[in-house]
Automatic annotation (TrEMBL):
Its main location: cytoplasm. Belongs to the heat shock protein 90 family. Keywords: ATP-binding, Chaperone, Cytoplasm, Nucleotide-binding, Plasmid, Stress response. GO terms for cellular component: cytoplasm. This is Chaperone protein HtpG. It holds the Pfam family HATPase_c_3. PANTHER family: HEAT SHOCK PROTEIN 90 FAMILY MEMBER (PTHR11528). It comes from the Bacteria. It comes from Rhizorhabdus wittichii (strain DSM 6014 / CCUG 31198 / JCM 15750 / NBRC 105917 / EY 4224 / RW1) (Sphingomonas wittichii). The gene is htpG. Residues 1-331 are annotated as: A. Homodimer. The keyword Chaperone applies. The keyword Acyltransferase does not apply. Residues 27-186 form the Histidine kinase/HSP90-like ATPase domain.
């Protein structure tokens, strides 16, 4: 049946398309990067499938992306000889959004007024649909590797698309051709002097060669050689090269805050190219969010699911290219491989040591990373016992005496008061409320610094009873603190002696409250407030109690 079938986009896609068409987002060039990156992905997928099924390559084994300009017809075409899509795959991939973070993105968009979504699109990236920023109609002709038939997907980006059989003579022999019917004001994208530098700059380092034809019948000219950036030596690579690669390869729109590029040699050989983003991705706290490190084996892309880094480093993007893993290792078997385990360990340690280095060499730059990702890194304090020491060293805190500045535990330990043996902390959801809590009065009177912990994860790692350089962490709400031993700051009044009068009053309160409290005591910790509730010395922290109560425990 050759008659095409008209279908509606999934609701989220329709919303995104509407946004894009009405967006004032100015950087329309990104559609080039998105479509080239999809074409490169398709070639890499084929390269992987061909390991097990070499026949898929037929007589055209070299991957290639071809960009054709047609000024007369006002069209731009991006074609690859990669894996291709069946009609069912096109309907699935181009009619729905599988991108992680879409939900969080949509929620942010919904909270904005009309027209304000443009910059957000720039931060999120909408992949294939960015084509509709410059085109009022897009045709996708595709033939899945190894299949006879071909499909045609067509849409004007206004809510529906049509899908049906394509004339096999028209379709690529293998792979996908995306034809953009450009809007009137996008005619520049049919001119070589405009398009070529943009592609070179944005996508010059994708691991697939790119050729350009400036007219449909012109000779193709190579504009990118497809050499994998990460295999080249650092000294040949500029910062712009790294940024462009990061954007194309990781689908990001910002500039890396930290770039790691090195080759591990010794028992295992592998290349690592990894980036810490400058901005927080939308889905950082999405429970489904997985790591973003890709695994290659001798330049062949194997999987994005190898979990090369622990969960608390899920904000790091990039890739590892192994020399030692067998090429034909199945994605399922990879997780069992001792080679992968060694890579995981090596790369994780290296990321943390690079962060340490940065913290020492450029504190401000490091603090930006901490502000974005500190709450994720702290998950490691809870999950990764073996690296807790390192992570505690990387952690930064706002404290009761820091005036909203970040402090390290080293800073804290250097400023301990006479007789102070513990690191004190208070857990809560709001920093101002914490800072003014009566629980802190006795600490303030002695000039003792208290860590103010306001991240969700804080209640968890801190009760695991870790210590830092031999100093235990102690909650200010927990039991009688050792305040009596620590001298008051100048000008503070010592508390009234526990007189007969006070003792009588305590007996009265105990009798009145009965079983509701386990004890009533005169305390060193209060200076202004008359009374506060504390948890027993070995009982649960009050914030923890609330968390568990909230979880129905
Ligand atoms: P992403 O690349 O992040 O998955 P996109 O919106 O860019 O998101 O693309 C959506 C999906 O469409 C891809 O995951 C892929 O399955 C499919 N796709 C897009 N372009 C191509 C192509 N040139 N060849 C094969 N599949 C493609
Ligand atoms: Mg894409």
């Amino acid at each position: 049946d050759a008659s095409p079938d008209t279908r509606s986009f999934e609701a989220d896609v329709a919303k995104l398309l509407h946004l894009m068409v009405h967006s004032v987002y100015s950087d329309k060039d990104v559609f080039l990067r998105e479509l080239v990156s999809n074409a490169a992905d398709a070639c890499e997928k084929l390269r992987y499938e061909a390991i097990a099924a070499p026949a898929l390559l037929g007589d055209d084994p070299q991957p290639r992306i071809t960009i054709t300009l047609d000024p007369d017809a006002r069209q731009l075409t991006i074609e690859d000889n990669g894996i291709g899509m069946t009609q069912a795959e096109m309907a699935e991939a181009l009619g729905t959004i599988a991108r992680s973070g879409t939900k969080a993105f949509m929620e942010q968009i919904a909270a904005k007024k009309d027209g304000e979504g443009g910059q957000l699109i720039g931060q999120f990236g909408v992949g294939f649909y960015s084509a509709f920023m410059v085109a009022d109609k897009v045709d996708v002709l595709s033939r899945r590797a190894g299949e006879e038939g071909a499909g045609l997907w067509t849409s004007d980006g206004l809510g529906t698309y049509a899908i049906g059989d394509a004339d096999p003579a028209e379709a690529p022999a293998r792979g996908t051709r995306v034809i953009l019917h450009l809007k009137e004001d996008a005619a520049d994208y049919t001119r070589r002097f405009s398009v070529e530098p943009k592609i070179k700059a944005q996508s010059g380092h994708v691991p697939v060669p790119i050729v350009l034809k400036d007219k449909p019948d012109a000779e193709p000219a190579q504009i990118a050689d497809g050499a994998a950036l990460w295999t080249r030596s650092k000294s040949e690579i500029s910062e712009e090269d790294y940024t462009d690669f990061y954007r194309t390869n990781a689908g990001q729109f910002d500039t890396p805050a930290l770039t790691l590029h090195y080759r591990a040699e010794g028992v295992h050989e592998y290349n690592v190219l990894a980036f810490v983003p400058e901005m927080r991705p939308f889905d950082l706290f999405d429970p489904d969010r997985a790591g973003r490190m890709k695994l290659y084996v001798r330049r062949v892309f194997i999987t994005g699911e190898a979990q090369i880094l622990p969960r608390y480093l899920r904000f790091v993007r990039g890739l590892v290219d192994s020399q030692d893993l067998p090429l034909n290792v199945s994605r399922e078997m990879i997780q069992e491989s001792p080679v992968l385990a060694a890579i995981q360990k090596g790369v994780s340690n290296r990321v943390l040591s690079e962060l340490e280095k940065l913290a020492n060499s450029d504190g401000d730059k490091y603090l930006k990373i901490w502000e974005n990702f500190g709450s994720v890194l702290k998950e490691g304090l809870y999950e990764d016992y073996a690296r807790r020491e390192t992570l505690l060293g990387l952690a930064r805190f706002k404290t009761s005496t820091s005036n909203n500045e970040w402090r390290s535990l080293k800073d804290y330990a250097a400023d301990l008061k006479e007789n102070q043996t513990a690191i004190y902390y208070a857990v809560g959801s709001d920093i101002e409320r914490l800072a003014s809590s009566p629980q802190l009065e006795g600490f303030r009177a002695r000039g003792i610094e208290v860590l103010l912990l306001t991240d969700q994860i804080d209640g968890f790692w801190v009760t695991g009873a870790p210590d830092f350089e031999g100093k235990p962490f102690k909650s200010v709400t927990q039991g009688m603190s050792d305040l009596g031993l620590i001298p008051l700051a100048d000008g503070e009044q010592p508390p009234a002696e526990t007189s007969d009068e006070v003792a009588g009053f305590i007996d009265f309160v105990k009798a009145t409250l009965g079983d509701v409290v386990s004890d009533v005591r005169a305390s060193e910790r209060l200076t202004d407030s008359p009374v506060c509730l504390v948890a027993p010395e070995h009982g649960m922290d009050r914030q923890m109690e609330r968390l568990l109560a909230g979880a129905g425990q």
